[in-house]
Amino acid sequence: MNFIPLSIPNIGRQEWELVRECLETGWVSSVGSFVTKFEEEFAKKVGATGAVATSSGTAALHVALKMAGVEAGDEVVLPSLTFIAPANAVRYLGGWPTFIDVQEDSLQMDPSKLASFIEKDCIRVNGVLTNRHTQRRVVGVLPVHILGHPVNLDPIVSLAEEAGLFVVQDSTESLGSTYKGRMIGSEGVSCFSFNGNKLITTGGGGMITFQDKKLADRARYLTTTAKDDSVEFVHNEVGFNYRLTNVQAAMGVAQLGRLDEFLSRKKAIHHSYAEGLAELGTCAMVGESSWAQSAFWLNTMRLTDPNTDRKVLHKLLKDVSIETRPLWQPLHMSPAHEGSWFEDCKVSEVLYKQCLNLPSSTGMTDSDLGRVVSVVKGIVS
Ligand SMILES: *Cc1c(COP(=O)(O)O)cnc(C)c1O
Ligand 1 centre and the CA of 184: distance in Å? Predict the structure, then answer.
């Protein structure tokens, strides 16, 4: 029985060749032509004006939030159901994540919960939006496009504009997806990740996209230690060493060239699961919302039958070498973020209990897919 992993890199010849070029020429570190090339091609691909490569998606979020003006004691609104990195990035700046619930169908941040938070839980203190429970200043919204699928962005952006909040998007799981036909990354400020299990990988890495070249220049400055004089080493502020290396960028250029291939394979994998598991009434694949074309980074199965425990299913699949993974412990329950304020996040809790992500690597074969479908069917029915 071959092992079927959840989501692993798909590395081809082009990656080898471009990385080899770096090694042979000695351009291996944070200076080199591939970094710029990767940034330019990435910006073009997602329809952004500028893109800045970073050492990780978390680093991208840290810098984007700093540029948005997050300061110690500020609150930023996040969905409870997400990987922990964006909440951590808020804390790196001394800020606090504030968690709201997600929508049951899309699994994404619920705009109506943002509206009710602003209306019912916030007041204006000297004109400043303030969480009346914590007395902390509320400065921004951080929607996270989870699992390859875009958040319903328009209502969130309007609410934020009305309330004077910034929006920074965490698009780390959703490169290549579109919202109402618009590419994720083509609006506002968006952060991406090239960790090993993401849509494209550089081993580790990230990107921030902007629609304003000046902002991109500022991000590049901050990620390269904020150096103002490269001869005398004069720094006018405290910067970061968050630059992607040329070797990683070379891999990124090659992977980006294969994004369309990956996206179409991801879509085919989704359709196989959706069709293969359709006749089981007690579980369903999470699909696309009306506004979305998903990148289907991970395929999520929802078990609505109270007699099917996702922990048991996970274990039974593991016993036959099929790797699956639940969603994340909702962050309003996370010990790491104790002290954060949250609204009732019941939907996140239910989804956390009921959902399991199925193997979704682009390199998985049709026979692997068939095996996952038949094993899942056998267990669930
Ligand atoms: C992967 C991920 C990140 C962080 O990316 P790294 O490159 O691993 O630092 C941030 N947010 C979400 C939602 C992610 O899934």
Answer: 16
Helix (H) / strand (E) element for 317: namely: helix 310-319
**Beta carbon of 85 within 6 Å of any ligand 1 atom:** yes
CA nearest ligand 1 atom 10, residue: 85
Nearest CA to ligand 1 atom 11: 85
| 205 backbone φψ class: left, alpha, beta (φ>0; ψ -120 to 50) | left
Q: Which atom of ligand 1 is nearest to the CA of 56?
A: 7
**Which ligand 1 atom is nearest residue 58's CA?**
9
Calpha distance 292→305 (Å, rounded) = 27
Q: What are 369-373's contacts with CB under 8 Å, separation 24+?
A: 369/269, 369/272, 369/273, 369/276, 370/272, 370/276, 371/4, 371/322, 372/4, 372/273, 372/317, 372/322, 373/272, 373/273, 373/276, 373/277
Burial of 253 (0-12, 13-18, 19+ CB in 10 A): buried
pLDDT tens across the length of the chain (381 residues) = 899 999 999 999 999 999 999 999 999 888 889 999 999 999 999 999 999 999 999 999 999 999 999 999 999 999 999 999 999 999 999 999 999 999 999 999 999 999 999 999 999 999 999 999 999 999 999 999 999 999 999 999 999 999 999 999 999 999 999 999 999 999 999 999 999 999 999 999 999 999 999 999 999 999 999 999 989 999 999 999 999 999 999 999 999 999 999 999 999 999 999 999 987 877 789 999 999 999 999 999 999 888 889 999 999 999 999 999 999 999 999 999 999 999 999 999 999 999 999 999 999 999 999 999 999 999 988
Q: Which ligand 1 atom lies nearest to the CA of residue 146?
A: 13
Residue 170: CB within 6 Å of ligand 1? yes
Contact at 8 Å (CB) between 296 and 148?
A: yes
Strand partners, 234: 229
E strand or H helix at 27, and its extent? none
Please tell me if the CB atom of residue 192 comes closer than 6 angstroms to any atom of ligand 1.
Answer: no
Q: Are 330 and 102 in contact (CB under 8 A)?
A: no
Instruction: Tell me which residue has its CA closest to atom 6 in ligand 1.
Output: 57
Cα 94 to Cα 73: distance, rounded to the nearest angstrom: 6
Using the structure block, give the residue that is written with the tokens 């409870």: 80
